[in-house]
Design brief:
- This protein is mainly beta.
- The protein has one domain.
- 0% of the residues lie in helices and 58% in strands.
- Strands 1-2-3 form a 3-stranded antiparallel beta sheet, with no helix packed on it. A 3-stranded antiparallel beta sheet has the order 4-5-6, with no helix packed on it.
- β2 and β3 form a beta hairpin.
């Protein structure tokens, strides 16, 4: 799902999901979903539980351009 060497994070105030590439030292912002309470890769999909509202988002690799 996410290329090796990248760290996926979510910012509390902005609600942005970002990917940090350790090899290039670059950060790319991808989604604005709100405050992620948890994130997990399951069956090649990125699953994100968002608070408040108890939303569950599911993304496949083709939906997000993690470079």
């Amino acid at each position: 799902m996410v290329p090796r060497g990248q760290i996926i994070s979510n910012a509390f105030f902005s609600g942005l999901v970002s990917a940090y590439n350790q090899q290039t030292n670059e950060t790319a912002e991808h989604l604005k979903i709100g405050q992620a309470e948890s994130m997990e890769v399951l069956n090649n999909k990125l699953c994100i539980g968002v608070y408040p509202g108890a939303f569950l988002f599911e993304y496949v690799k083709s939906q997000i351009d993690f470079r």
